[in-house]
């Protein structure tokens, strides 16, 4: 199947590792030009070189998403001539139960996780509307459907993006722009390892015991791979997903129990 991504230009946030990196790699493999950004210059350059060596087209731009949001967009436009696809991926907050979150904890996490997504979409939309084609895909979390224990801030702040995305989707659908969220369950990433270690510390169990219990709770009986996740993001950014908007796409091995 031709996904219709050849010649499309994708800005992929927080793409030096994990889900963002896998999404950029999948898009590049399908012929999209990708502009990858994160704070880690070395990791970005390594991935960009690997993509370009395979015949893809990728750019690296090291920046702090919280402080340099507008600069990131300007650099992407300068490198690619425009942005057709925004893959909005941001890091997660510390593991914490709801009662432990202090009032002052919310604002910096909102500034890091939510505000850059809203702003970059706002910057990209005029060009997408002018061309009559655009994709905004936010990488969120399965916690927006089934709240994850010990991740109170993530559950709350990513749910704010759901409300925004659903509203935006209805506003821009007539312009050929889709707005969707892809929800990872337990995917084998450094972040998942960090969360397993945090849960182990809280419960008094070993990280291996926590991971084993987590896998046992997933119908697929395993963690997902970043490649599996990145391919779903790639499809949602493609021409073939043109009649899918305002959706929450689960990539969770069946772990979310609700219908």
UniProtKB/TrEMBL annotation:
<feature type="region of interest" description="Disordered">
    <location>
        <begin position="193"/>
        <end position="217"/>
    </location>
</feature>
<dbReference type="InterPro" id="IPR002347">
    <property type="entry name" value="SDR_fam"/>
</dbReference>
<comment type="similarity">
    <text>Belongs to the short-chain dehydrogenases/reductases (SDR) family.</text>
</comment>
<dbReference type="Pfam" id="PF13561">
    <property type="entry name" value="adh_short_C2"/>
</dbReference>
<dbReference type="GO" id="GO:0004316">
    <property type="term" value="F:3-oxoacyl-[acyl-carrier-protein] reductase (NADPH) activity"/>
</dbReference>
<feature type="compositionally biased region" description="Basic and acidic residues">
    <location>
        <begin position="193"/>
        <end position="208"/>
    </location>
</feature>
<protein>
    <submittedName>
        <fullName>3-oxoacyl-[acyl-carrier protein] reductase</fullName>
        <ecNumber>1.1.1.100</ecNumber>
    </submittedName>
</protein>
<dbReference type="InterPro" id="IPR050259">
    <property type="entry name" value="SDR"/>
</dbReference>
<keyword id="KW-0560">Oxidoreductase</keyword>
<dbReference type="InterPro" id="IPR036291">
    <property type="entry name" value="NAD(P)-bd_dom_sf"/>
</dbReference>
């Amino acid at each position: 199947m031709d996904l219709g991504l050849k010649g499309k230009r994708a800005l992929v946030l927080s793409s030096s590792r994990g889900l963002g990196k896998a999404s950029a790699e999948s898009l590049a493999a399908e012929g999209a030009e990708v502009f990858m950004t994160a704070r880690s210059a070395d990791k970005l350059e390594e991935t960009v070189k690997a993509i370009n060596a395979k015949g893809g087209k990728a750019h690296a731009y090291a920046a702090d998403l919280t402080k340099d949001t507008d600069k990131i967009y300007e650099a992407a436009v300068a490198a690619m001539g425009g942005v057709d696809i925004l893959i909005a991926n941001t890091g997660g907050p510390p593991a914490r139960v709801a009662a432990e979150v202090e009032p002052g904890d919310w604002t910096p996490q909102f500034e890091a996780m939510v505000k850059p997504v809203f702003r970059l979409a706002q910057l990209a939309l005029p060009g997408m509307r002018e061309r009559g084609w655009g994709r905004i895909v936010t990488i969120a979390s399965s916690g927006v459907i089934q709240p994850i224990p010990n991740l109170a801030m993530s559950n709350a702040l990513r749910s704010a993006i759901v409300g925004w995305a659903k509203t935006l989707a209805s506003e821009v659908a007539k312009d050929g722009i889709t707005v969707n969220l892809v929800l990872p369950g337990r995917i084998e990433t450094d972040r998942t390892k960090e969360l397993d270690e945090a849960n182990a510390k809280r419960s008094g169990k070993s990280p291996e015991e926590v991971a084993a219990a987590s896998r046992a709770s997933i119908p697929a009986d395993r963690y997902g791979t970043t490649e599996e996740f990145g391919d779903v993001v790639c499809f949602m950014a493609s021409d073939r997903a043109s009649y899918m908007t305002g959706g929450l796409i689960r990539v969770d091995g069946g772990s979310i129990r609700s219908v």
